[in-house]
Amino acid sequence: MIEVKNVSKTYKMGKEIVTALNNVNLKIDDGEFVAIVGPSGSGKSTLMHLVGGLDTPTIGSICVDNKDISKLKDKEMSKYRNRKIGFVFQAFNLENTQTALENVMMPLIFAGVNGGLRREKAKKALEMVGLKDKEKHRPSEMSGGQRQRVSIARALVNEPQIIFADEPTGNLDSKNGALIMKLLEDLNEKGYTIIMVTHNMEEAKKAKRVIRIKDGQVEEVEESEI
C-alpha cells in the first residue's frame, strides 16, 4: 500500500518560493488502477515523482509497504526505483541507437541480471505487449504506439509492483491511445498497481478511481463511473 502523509513540496525560483504540493494526504491500495487528474501546474506530476522516488518531499512522508521512502539513502532509492517501480513517459524516453530488445534490457543491466537471463526476460516483456516481431527494430523504425509499448515492456521487465504512467497517450493518435489504455487495463487485471497522470478525462474514467488535484491539493477522490 502507498500512503502519502501530510506531504508538501516547495521549490525556490529566484527569490520566490513556489508550492507544488500543499499538505497532501492519500492512500492507494495494492492492485488499484488510479488516475491523477488536474490542470497544468496543479501538482499531479510532482506527486507522481515523489511516490516514484524521483524527488523527495519538503515536508511529510511517503510510505510504500510501511517503509518511508523519503528517508532512503541514494543507493536504497535507486534499488527501490529499479525493483519496485516501472515508469512510462509521454515522450517514450527510448535510446534511438538501440533496438527494442536492447532498450527493454537496460533496467536489467542496472539490476545486475546476467546476459542470458537479461535477454530472456526482455523477450518475454516484449511478447507481453505484442511486439515479439519488433525485437530488432530501432525506435525510428516504429510507430508512436509501438514505441510506447516498448517503453511499457521496459517498465515491466523487472516485474515491478507499481507502474507509473505519465500522460502515456499524450503523443499518440486516438487509435494508438486506445490500444495503450487497453494494455494498461490488462496489466491491472494481472495484479499490477497502475498510477496514471493524465489530463484526458475520458481516459481517466478507465481507471477504478480518480484523484483530482488543484493548486497543489487533493480536491476530490472518487470512484470511476466505468
TrEMBL record:
The species this protein was found in: Clostridium felsineum
InterPro entries: AAA+_ATPase, ABC_transporter-like_ATP-bd, ABC_transporter-like_CS, ABC_transpr_LolD-like, MacB-like_ATP-bd, P-loop_NTPase
Enzyme Commission number: 3.6.3.-
One term under GO cellular component: membrane protein complex
SMART domains: AAA
Molecular functions per Gene Ontology: ATP binding; ATP hydrolysis activity; transmembrane transporter activity
Leading EC class: hydrolase
Keywords tagged on the record: ATP-binding, Hydrolase, Nucleotide-binding, Transport
Protein's name in the database: ABC transporter ATP-binding protein YknY
SUPFAM superfamilies: P-loop containing nucleoside triphosphate hydrolases
Coiled coil stretches, renumbered: none
